[in-house]
Amino acid sequence: MSPFVSLPLALVCAADFLRVDLNSYLYLSALLFAIGFFGVLLRKNTLVIYMCLELMLVAATVALVAFSRYNGTMDGNVFVFFILTVAAAEVAVGLAIIVALFRRRQTIQVEELNALKN
Amino acid sequence: MTPELLQNLSADNFWPAIAPEVMLGVLALLLLVAEIVLPKKRHDVIPLISLSGLLGVFLGILLNFKPVGLGETTFNGLLRHSEGSQFLRAFFVLSALLVTILGIIALKKQKMPKTEFFSIVLVITAALMLLGQAHNFILLFVALETVTVGFYILVSYTRTNPLSLEAGLKYLILGALSSALLLFGIVLLYGVAGNPSALGATANPMDFDALRVFLAHNPDNFLASVGIVLVLSGIAFKIGAVPFQIWVPDVYQGAPTPVTAFLAVASKAAGFALLLILAGVFSSYSHLVISVLSIMAAATIVFGNFAALTQHNVKRLIGLSGVSHAGYLMLGVIAALTPGGGSQAVGAVFFYLFAYLLASFTVFGVMTHLAGPNDSDQELDHYQDLAKTHPFLAGVLAVGLGSLAGIPPLAGFMGKLFIFVAAFKAGLYGLLAVAVVGVVVSIYYYFGWIKAAFFPHWRPPLPTGSVADSRPVRSAVSLPFGLLLGSLAVASIILGFYQGQLGAWLLGR
Q: Scanning every residue of chain A, which has its alpha carbon at the shortest distance from the alpha carbon of B160?
């Protein structure tokens, strides 16, 4: 068999190999969620924490789209748009607060933001 | 998308059912327009417009308490209207009304733009009211996020004050974290319930009814259990239950006092409304829900009361005492879930929330009046000699604190009594013991506050040359605000003696 003939066959095999099953998406989503969650808990820079929060939302979105695709229900895809909108609103307000705080305190490191105490 | 499809989809939309929410939304926009249109000298009319609108909506809900469509779902199953949700609507509007009044007083002491505050309060109220009627996870999430994002803004509202901003940032990070947990829980439930190969799979897994049917068919699904626990922890953040209470003292201290009141009362009530709604949806997993909530409730009562003991800042104190109140309320929710408790426990939770609203706003009203220009700095020391200079305020404060502590014959006592009776009927003896110990401990710090206001205590003489007194200047109470505080306190007293129709309706269901 010449390589020219086997190329489409190889592509078909590769496509078959690349058909990702639901669990792979869920593992990816759980991994992203865990990275985001522990990032929020462990990182010190507020902006990095904020990115980790967004990562958690994206993790949920990945799982949502995968479920929606494999279960054949459209609600999940619609829900993604709501999540994106909500995340955008949250970022708009959140960054405004971070900028205002930086102007007052000249820092966004969490360990230095401890003025509220008994 | 054919016109017929759209027509079919909109056939279920029953707009009169959400008229109060629509009106509040329109009112919120109207305030912003009024700010542009009115000359600067007339801007103090804006809060009055907001107040009269809220009062109108409140009376409208009370007069039309059983509207058409009660007990039905509308908007393709997004909303479900019940008597409980009607009660919550009135509750949220009432708390928004009081928050607006406190806002007028508190914002006078700050050089801040004022209109947005009242507008955002209205938007949040509308979203809270929708939340109390949620029957679908998409609506639940969007309404909850509207509330949360609105609160981010309100908490950091005094943006010239770094403490307020810091509180806003803390609320932002932890609030967003809890939303992400809740969202992931929703996604897991959605995915599991929609799985075509599972028994009882549904084509509409976001719907609460469909989800309940699915869960009843699969009472021991692992992913569904994880989803339920995640959803519960997302809600536990909102009500400030242990182990998700870390934000409470800092955020309560940094936020402007009216916002603290709004967070303490309305946001917490919304969390319990959701908990009650979702407890019904998760009824086939009630063993899991009950065990999670029981651990949380016990830890919440213990933590809230013991952490409040050492506080000097009254805002932190009332925040941590609010944590313990959340614990007692969770006791009521658990009682509602156990077979012996039933609907009477739900009524007890609502009654407790109402008594908590009256008492909290009495205390927050006094706090707002006494606060100086720095809103976060409100110490127990500042209440010294209050009974001598302002006997009326001190008396009102004592009634409010007494009701929070659960001293008979005030409303707070009856609320606790109803919850404890419901818990006793449900056989939750261990939790009941923890709660009673918690109440005894709570009397210590509530009375410490009353003591600071009523009894003179020795202070070391100030060293020469130091600032004479750091306490904010006390002004006289205006007549309308005095009447409001007085009527709140009197309502607490009357509700303790005579529950009347409200009690009969709440407990007789």
A: A104
User: pLDDT (tens digit, 9 = 90+) per residue, B437-462?
Assistant: 999 999 999 999 999 889 877 666 65
Is A86 within 8 Å of B205 when comparing Cβ atoms? no
Cβ-based burial of B63 (10 A; exposed 0-12, middle 13-18, buried ≥19): exposed
Q: What is the CA radius of gyration of chain B?
A: 23
> Closest-CA residue in chain A for B159?
A100
Q: Rounded to whole angstroms, how far apart are CA atoms A105 and B10?
A: 51
CA distance B384 to B371: 13
Name the residue among B137, B163, B310 with its Cβ closest to that of A116: B163
| Contact at CB, A101 and B172, closer than 8 angstroms | no
Average pLDDT over residues B407-434: 92
- ipTM value of the model? 0.88
Establish if A69 touches chain B: CB-CB under 8 angstroms: no
Domain containing residue B162:
15-457+475-507
What is the pLDDT at residue B459?
66
Residue A11 belongs to domain with CATH number: 1.10.287.3510
Average pLDDT, chain B: 90
The per-residue pLDDT for range A22-44, each reduced to its tens digit, is 899 999 999 999 999 999 999 99
User: Does residue B470 belong to any structural domain of this protein?
Assistant: no
pTM of the model: 0.93
Residues of B in contact with A75 (CB under 8 A): 138, 190, 194, 204-206
Domain that holds residue A47: 3-112
In a domain, A117, yes or no: no
User: How many domains is chain B partitioned into structurally?
Assistant: 1
Residue B463: inside a domain, yes or no?
no
Torsion angle defined by CA atoms of residues B367, B371, B376 and B381, in that order, rounded to the nearest 10 degrees: -80
Residue of B142, B153, B194 lying closest to A71 (CB–CB): B194
- Which of B112, B183, B316 would best serve as a mutation to test chain A binding (most A beta carbons within 10 A)? B183
Domains identified in chain A, total number: 1
Whether residue A118 lies inside any domain: the answer is no
Residue closest to B398 by CA, chosen among B304, B305, B492: B492
Judge whether A63 is closer than 8 Å to chain B, CB to CB: yes
For chain A, the DSSP string reads --HHHHHHHHHHHHHHHH---HHHHHHHHHHHHHHHHHHHHH--BHHHHHHHHHHHHHHHHHHHHHHHHHHT-SHHHHHHHHHHHHHHHHHHHHHHHHHHHHHHHS--BGGG------
CB contact under 8 A, A118 and B313: yes
Tell me whether A90 touches chain B (CB under 8 Å). yes
Q: Is the pLDDT of residue A45 over 60?
A: yes
- Position B447 in a domain: yes
Instruction: Looking at the complex, report in whole angstroms how far the Cα of residue A17 sits from the nearest Cα belonging to chain B.
Output: 23
Which ranges of B282-428 does DSSP label H, i.e. alpha helix? 286-308, 314-337, 343-370, 386-389, 391-405, 411-425
The pLDDT value given to residue B113: 84
Question: CA separation (Å) from A69 to A21, A73, B201?
Answer: 11, 7, 15
